[in-house]
Amino acid sequence: MPLGTIALLLAASFSLGALPLTGWAVRVFSRRDLRALGTGNVGVSAAFIHGGKLAGIAAVLAEIARGIVPVLAGRFCFPDAPAIAIALLIPLVAGRYAIARGGGVTNAVWGLLVFSPPVAVSSGIWGLLVWGLAQRWWGEGDRARLFASRCGCLCTPIWVWVWRQSMPEFLAAAGLALLLAAINFSQGDDMALSKSDQLFSLDDSLDAAICGDKAAKLSQLKRAGFNVPSGWILSQEAGIGHRASGIGHRGNSEELSIPNSLIENLKSKIQNRMIVRSSAAGEDGDTSSAAGQYQTIGPVFTEAELIDGINRCRQSYWTAEALAYRRQGQLPDTQMAVLIQPYIDSQIAGVMFSRNPLDGGSQIIIEALPGGAESVVGGQVTPVHWEIDFSAPEILEKQLSALETNSIINKQIIAELVKQAQAIEAFFHGIPQDIEWSWDGEKVWILQSRPITNLQPFWTRTIAAEVIPGAIRPLTWSINRPLTCEVWGEIFQVVLGDRAIGLNFNETATLLGSHAYFNATLLGEIFRMMGLPEQGLEFLLRGQKMGKPPLGKILPNLPGLWRLVQRERALNAEFKGDRTSIFLPALQSLEKEEGSSATDSVTDVTDVSPMEVGRGKKEEGRRKKEEGRGKREEEILTPNAQFPMPNYQYLTELLERAEQIQEWLKPITYYNILGPIGLAIRKAIFRVNDDWLANDSAPEIASVRALQQLAHKLRQAAVSQPDETVSVAHLAQTFAETPALQADFEKWLNIYGYLSEVGTDIAVPTWREQPEIYQKLLINMAQKAETNLVEKHEIGLTFSQKWRLDKCQERALVKNEISEIYARLLAHLRWTFLEIEACGLAMQVFQESGDIFYLEFGEIQQWIRSGASVSFQDTISQRRDRLLADRDRPIPPVVYGNLLPNSQTRSIELATSATNIMQGIPASIGRVEGFVKICRTASTDLGENAIAVVPYTDAGWAPLLLGATAIIAEVGGQLSHGAIIAREYKIPAVMNISEATTRLRDGQKVRVDGYLGTVELLD
After folding, report:
1. Confidence (pLDDT) at 235
2. CA distance 989 to 465
3. Half-sphere exposure in the Cβ direction for 756 (13 Å, CA)
4. How far apart are CA 794 and CA 691, in angstroms?
5. Is-contact 533 548, C-beta < 8 A?
6. Is the pTM of this model over 0.70?
7. Sheet bearing 200-201, strands edge to edge
């Protein structure tokens, strides 16, 4: 028998045992150090207790593998000496105990199971029998469990002898059993500690389900560095028994039995006066506060008073008032933890709200009185009240400096409270907080913090501002909202499965102040269920970047995420099938019904490049149809045109067409949402830069390029020399006298006429409806000597980069096709409503063009299907006035609750900050100085060398933005339409400059830095 090999295996087993595998598993899944928790054992039971289920499972699997490896190695190296396999477990367990600080029982059990299943099973059965007998003798408890565990270890050699009849194996098993028993006697018991005299500290990471929401939130604040008094928590099962029926039952009024050791432990930690506070499940929670429902007792001096205070506090959980509160809020009856803290001798105390609790406005509300905070929240005394406006830094500074105070509190304390309120709200990811505080003459203490429960749900303009920007008319919203909510609900259900049953996806979006908002509360809950990081809510409320999701939270969601990945991978094939079977036939039938000439352009533009559309025979077919369209299209697009006598049969046909278009919009909306998500994920995974992708087929790029080429033709026809100066009048005359140019322009309008300033808003006119604007734009483009014709240049990519690009390019092309079909269907829907409106004008149901967009779709359905004579004028007038008012009011990026904050007129000074710099999102690199032109619509005359300041960007803004020297947008990011156009044409651009159209003025000189994302005011 080679002794060198045996020595090597023994050393390897000890080294393997010394690896802190369980400690690593807990760190990965819960970011906690077991050595500093509980008994300090780094074992499997401690991993479950302190690290959670996932950490415990990972620890079990690691220890199983660790126990099996030496046994397999011994059997492989020494097949004729099986005792060595058992003997190798001894240094493994020794290394586990001496260095890795574990017990080694799991290793030994699974090692023996691999060595001899009968031995392991017999030992396990014997241990269970001993446990049952011990429970009969000592009752249920930790003593019986520990006795059974030790007997199971010590009986193992006996079962080795019974089954194996080998003295070497018996001796090896005996040595292992004695080592395990010795370790078991010497180590502390985490399972017993978790149920006995353990006191959780506010310095620990606390589980709200065990210690209550109040203690859990205070723990988060204390560990983050806020001034929170020290505290210890008796958990809901912290060794406190009951003399009769046990705690936790309704009607419980007897006193609880509290171990003397626990009281002594508390007194040793808090030498002076104490306060006993409730920390129940659901108290100070996200949706319920339980404010004033449970009793706080203090100050407490003696041990007897402490025991009485704990009893009274816990019994207050079962008062009639507390029970009624939970029934009304549909909260379950669970348990109450008790928080014991040093009593703060307050000179001044009070409460503050990080936002106006009435409407979520930008005011910090502070109320204070001399003495403890209970006098403020008690409601029996009127406290001193301050409202501090923090809507802008200069306003906050001005208010603090001009603050009138009295002897109760000074300005410095108020300034500190404001700072604390803002910091705590930011710490809790932008959720408005109700904060209890006190001042002891030296520092401000935070006594509790909970969400302002009435300011829910939270509504955010993040994402919504780009999906459907600007003020929205009722008809647009009544169509877009169901489509959006249904599709997002379907996507989330794919990931969440049965967990999505209780979620109401119809509440995904709403309209506040005529502007679209997404439900950040619902989306934040979905993000948490999907395992995304807590910054998910901060991303929605504050636009912050999302952090990396913890692996432990992602693992349970892997099946759902895999289902979504499968959907995303199948998107290209599914879309191509639906494109052929649904979308193209749908568009052809619509254009046939409307007498439009764009049928061929629809079919061709998705198969070939836009400039190839209409060549050859297809060009002849289009022109013949154009000749035949004539008066019919004019009637559709001109509401006051002479229609055939309208009748309800014709209106019903139009209504059915509108309903059918909406049915076609459902699947394309799904593709239009999932497609960009998939592309963004692919770009992130394969690290593909935007510049690598070919965007020629994107409507906003292709339309501009085609118009540029037409402008180049117009200029060539009007001048003899390339650099010759030419007037607008001469270009207009040349265009009017050249039928070929007019035909080319008409062809361009037919192909791209479905586009509009806001592709998702059917109330906004399409290009086809306002040809004079784009004809003027064509002439202005032709006037410039440089036509900005950008040739697509090949980017030198490595083989690896080309491979990564291939994973994204096809999806980018499909995304552009999806966008086009989606926009075309919406354009046809708009044109259908214009036909309905024209009939309504003839019937005097409407008074002027555009009235129909102030009705909801259900109201239009009811009118047409009823056949009754109706008048919508009062409704339309009220809604039009409301829309006009909402256009001019400030629209906050976040709304708390279902009410817009009270709009207070305020002037925004253009140069109040020390640097005069506004920070946004860098979208396209470059640095330009120039003069501002505020562009509220895409038809604004931009002029020459102007910096365009726009409220948002969509595909319909492309022609306007092309003429700008730089772009400043109020909303949008690096993937917005404006950013794509800017990068394509090397125009510096900055996105997400809040209120840019009101903070800047026409003719103001600014410097735009698209690399830093800044706009600097130069005058």
Report:
1. 74
2. 18
3. 23
4. 10
5. yes
6. no
7. 200-201, 232-234, 336-342, 274-280, 297-300
